[in-house]
C-alpha cells in the first residue's frame, strides 16, 4: 500500500510542478478552494507539527473543518515550488487520517488529486490497484457512501476497470468519475450512462 501512496504523491508532484500560474489559482472540485488550497491541504500533515495542529484545533473549538479551511487559506499563498517540494519530499511519509490507516491515506491523496486534475483536464494516471482500493473504501457500506451520497437502488459499474458495486439500476462511467460522484463532488451527470443515470436528476451534484 505504501508503494502506491508514494508513487501517487510523486506523480501528482510532477503534474503540479508543470502547472501554470493560472492553473495554480484555478477552481478545484473542492467547493471554494483553488488548486493551491487543495495542495496546501494535502501537504498540511507534512508541514505542521503536532503541537501546532493541536493548538489550531483548540483555537477552532475542536472543529477540524474550520481549522483545515484556515490552514488551506493561509498556506495557499505559499510559493508553488515550496508546496510541490513538500509533497515530493514526503512521498514516503507514513501519515494517515485518524482511524483510516494506509487505505485512508491513499483515498485522501487520490480523491484530492482528482479534485485538482479533473477540472483542469490534466492527465494524472492512477494505477488500477489504487483506484479499486479507493473505490471499495469510499463506496462504504449500506445505501450511502462514506461521503453521504445516496446509492440506494443503484449499481455502480466502471467502464474502464473490472469493478462494480451495489445492486439496482446500472450507473456506468469511468472509474474516476464514479469515485468523484460517490465522494460528493459536483460533476456533470452526462458523463454517466445507463438507467441509473436517469435517477440522478439535475446537471450535476
* Helix percent band: 40-55%
The chain-level mean pLDDT equals 94
Instruction: Write down the secondary-structure element order.
Output: HHHHHHHHHEEEH
Count the beta strands: 3
What does the overall shape look like? globular
Low-confidence stretches: none
- What portion of residues belong to β-strands? 5-15%
Radius of gyration from the CA trace? 17 Å
Strand order of the largest sheet: 2-1-3
**Category by helix and strand content:** mainly alpha
Largest pleated sheet = 3 strands, mixed
First-residue to last-residue Cα separation: 31 Å
| Count of separate DSSP helical elements | 10
Task: Describe what this molecule looks like in 3D.
The protein has 205 residues and is mainly alpha-helical. The protein has helices at residues 2-17, 21-24, 35-42, 44-47, 50-59, 64-75, 80-89, 101-120, 128-138, 175-182, and strands spanning 154-158, 164-166, 169-173. It has a three-stranded mixed sheet. Strand 1 and strand 2 (164-166) form a beta hairpin.
Question: What's the arrangement of secondary structure elements?
Answer:
Elements: H1 2-17, H2 21-24, H3 35-42, H4 44-47, H5 50-59, H6 64-75, H7 80-89, H8 101-120, H9 128-138, E1 154-158, E2 164-166, E3 169-173, H10 175-182
Parallel strand pairs: 1-3
Antiparallel strand pairs: 1-2
Outline:
The protein has 205 residues and is mainly α. The protein is built from 10 helices and 3 strands. Helix content is 50%, strand content 6%.
Amino acid at each position: 500500500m505504501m508503494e502506491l501512496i508514494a508513487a501517487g504523491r510523486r506523480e501528482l508532484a510532477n503534474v503540479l510542478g508543470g502547472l501554470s500560474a493560472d492553473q495554480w489559482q484555478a477552481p478545484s472540485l473542492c467547493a471554494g478552494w483553488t488548486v493551491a488550497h487543495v495542495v496546501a491541504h494535502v501537504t498540511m500533515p507534512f508541514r505542521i507539527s503536532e503541537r501546532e495542529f493541536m493548538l489550531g484545533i483548540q483555537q477552532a473549538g475542536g472543529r477540524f473543518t474550520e481549522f483545515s479551511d484556515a490552514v488551506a487559506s493561509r498556506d495557499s499563498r505559499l510559493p508553488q515550488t515550496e508546496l510541490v517540494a513538500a509533497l515530493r519530499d514526503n512521498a514516503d511519509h507514513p501519515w494517515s487520517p485518524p482511524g483510516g490507516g494506509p487505505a485512508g491515506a491513499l483515498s485522501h491523496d487520490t480523491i484530492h488529486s482528482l479534485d485538482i486534475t479533473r477540472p483542469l483536464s490534466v492527465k494524472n494516471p492512477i494505477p488500477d490497484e489504487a483506484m479499486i482500493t479507493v473505490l471499495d473504501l469510499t463506496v462504504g457500506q449500506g445505501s450511502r457512501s462514506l461521503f453521504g451520497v445516496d446509492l440506494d437502488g443503484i449499481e455502480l459499474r466502471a467502464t474502464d476497470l473490472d469493478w462494480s458495486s451495489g445492486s439496482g439500476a446500472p450507473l456506468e462511467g469511468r472509474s474516476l468519475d464514479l469515485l468523484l460522484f460517490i465522494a460528493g463532488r459536483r460533476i456533470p451527470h452526462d458523463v454517466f450512462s445507463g438507467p441509473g443515470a436517469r435517477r440522478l436528476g439535475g446537471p450535476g451534484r
